[in-house]
Design goal:
It is a single chain. The chain has 212 residues and is α/β, with parallel strands linked by helices. It has two domains: 4-90 and 180-211, Periplasmic binding protein-like II (D-Maltodextrin-Binding Protein, domain 2), CATH 3.40.190.10; 92-179, D-Maltodextrin-Binding Protein, domain 2, CATH 3.40.190.10. It has six helices and eleven strands. The protein has helices spanning 15-24, 55-61, 71-77, 120-129, 163-167, 191-211, and strands spanning 4-9, 37-39, 45-50, 66-70, 82-86, 92-99, 114-117, 135-138, 154-159, 170-179, 181-185. The strands form two sheets. It has a six-stranded mixed β-sheet with strand order 2-3-1-4-11-5. It has a five-stranded mixed β-sheet with strand order 8-7-9-6-10. The longest helix is centred in the last third of the chain and has 21 residues, at 191-211. It starts with a strand and ends with a helix. Bound molecules: 1-O-pyrophosphono-5-O-phosphono-alpha-D-ribofuranose and magnesium ion. 1-O-pyrophosphono-5-O-phosphono-alpha-D-ribofuranose (PRP) binds at residues 12, 141-142, 144, 157-164. Keywords: Amino-acid biosynthesis, ATP-binding, Cytoplasm, Glycosyltransferase, Histidine biosynthesis, Magnesium, Metal-binding, Nucleotide-binding, Transferase.
């Protein structure tokens, strides 16, 4: 039997809501938290639990057909990948932030400064569009600590509640983009699986409507 292969975040902020929306679509998936793959019982679907940052490449390669992923990850690593539904959860923004005590009037104040981030392409594109050149330091997590340990003058990371910025004495100074979870589609998806995708999209749309 042909099944559509969906990537969802293995652990992290999208995981729970991603599984919840599939459940609300009436799809039962055996709890596969420790497994990397699970099969739905009543819909032709296989779930792959993957790291966020790896998902764009899996879509590109056609290893998975679709994914529930944050737009922020696609902007950074998968701007070539098509999206369909916006899923109305995991809302956040990708922001530049600096120490509370720093004088900041405009993005020009970041000229020549060191910025720590896990979103180098996103920051680079933004700063270039503003004619600012800065020195990017790529780190994969706990980015907000960088200014406090003297590693950077500012940071770029996702902000949701703002509590991580607050706890690290940083202030948000620019919003680069707003993001939420979306349904992304592999450019390699087969005709047969597109039919399954359309059934899934129909259910997702109904769920989103019912949630309003
Ligand atoms: C994420 C993100 C921010 C924080 C934003 O980090 O990188 O640091 O959440 O959320 P807030 O505005 O609600 O505080 P996460 O906790 O996932 O850890 P990581 O950066 O180490 O991956
Ligand atoms: Mg973080």
């Amino acid at each position: 039997m042909t099944r559509i292969r969906i990537a969802v975040q293995k652990s992290g902020r999208l995981n729970e809501d991603s599984l919840k929306i599939l459940k609300d679509c009436g799809i039962s998936i055996d709890n596969g938290k420790d497994q990397l793959k699970a099969t739905a019982r009543n819909f032709p679907l296989e779930v792959f639990y993957l790291r966020n940052g790896d998902i764009p490449q899996y879509l590109r390669d056609g290893v998975v057909d679709i994914a529930i992923i944050g737009e922020n990850v696609l902007v950074e690593k998968g701007s070539d990948i098509d999206t369909k539904e916006k899923l109305n959860f995991s809302k956040c923004r990708v922001c530049l932030a600096v120490p509370k005590g720093m004088k900041y009037n405009s993005v020009k104040d970041l000229e020549g400064k060191r910025i720590a981030t896990s979103y180098p392409n996103t920051v680079k594109g933004y700063l270039e569009s503003k004619g600012v050149s800065a020195d990017l330091h790529i780190i994969n997590g706990s980015v907000e600590i960088a200014p406090n340990i003297g590693l950077a003058d500012g940071i770029c990371d996702i902000v949701s509640s703002g509590s991580t910025l607050f706890k690290n004495n940083l202030k948000e100074v620019e919003v680069i983009l707003k993001s939420e979870a979306v349904l992304a589609i592999s450019p390699q998806i087969s005709e047969e699986r597109i039919e399954i995708l359309e059934k899934l999209r129909f259910r997702i749309k109904s769920v989103l409507q019912a949630r309003q």
